[in-house]
């Protein structure tokens, strides 16, 4: 390794270790924080790998395992960060498990692999990693405009552009130079890019916005927060006269059925109310306590659906009709939102309250 690579990769590792220490101290209690820590440690191991003597056996496996886990940790972290109302899907552990197994077998098989077998295993491992990273990037992009937490929107942008792009470039370079000579400039450029991203991340975490990560991570439920010793959220700032009027206008509009508009976005709602979008975001997030615009809409939609499903005069209406009436595009998101509120499907809810 050249002196330039050692300098830049060493600087990147030091900065990432500093960031990982902060995450471990302040955010380890959160599941998302632990997955972020796993991702940071995996990147550190990846940068250290070329600087170490040739490893084999268990030491090599021990160092390579966090590296193999990075794409999976990225996807799980982005899901917990952006979809805090939903647990990580059970099916998601299947591609994660397959990726880990294939990655370990490709690099640490107990018996030497032939070239005919090692090459397709390596290619499959790279494709699986790309798939997990792509799922993470897709998670960051989905419902971006519905996110009401400003700091988290910035974090999503940083992760989407910087971290995701970095991982894609690294895996593409690994695949490109797996079986051909690596130009001497490539490792140096990689270390330079890693150190630059680590510097930006450290500046953001420690100087520009030290509370941003804490505000972005999903908050535990009330009982869990008390058990874990998490401080309750501070009371919302007081409203001036204009803001009070805007908040009242918003609530009246929604109580009069404004939520029934199919596919309603926060931008459309701001136009309907003649309120600037960023002001509307602040009102719903800081003063009403909602971190996602769709969850704010679901409050009104599920309230109406619950009433209609328990009304004998509307027992003849299909569940789909009610879902479409209150603003959902299809039955699937309605069922998911309803089940989060009542722990049962709309059909089960109706059957319980309107027995035959």
SSE topology:
Blueprint (H helix, E strand, L loop, with lengths): L2 H24 L4 H18 L8 H26 L10 H16 L6 H27 L8 H27 L8 H24 L3 H5 L5 H7 L12 H15 L10 H8 L3 H11 L5 H17 L9 H7 L5 H12 L3 H8 L3
Helix pairs in contact: 1-2, 1-7, 2-3, 3-4, 3-5, 4-5, 5-6, 6-7
Overview of this structure, please?
The radius of gyration is 24 Å and the shape is globular. Mean pLDDT is 84; it is low at 222-230. The relative contact order is 0.09. The chain has helices at 3-26, 31-48, 57-82, 93-108, 115-141, 150-176, 185-208, 212-216, 222-228, 241-255, 266-273, 277-287, 293-309, 319-325, 331-342, 346-353. Helix content is 71%, strand content 0%. It folds into 2 domains: 3-223; 241-353, Homeodomain-like (Arc Repressor Mutant, subunit A, Orthogonal Bundle). The longest helix has 27 residues, at 115-141. It is built from 16 helices and no strands. By secondary structure, it is mostly helical. Helix 4 (93-108) packs antiparallel against helix 5 (115-141). GO terms for molecular function: DNA-binding transcription factor activity; sequence-specific DNA binding. The chain crosses the membrane at residues 6-25, 32-52, 58-78, 90-109, 158-179, 191-209. Residues 224-245 are annotated as: Disordered. Residues 244-352 form the HTH araC/xylS-type domain. It holds the Pfam family HTH_18.
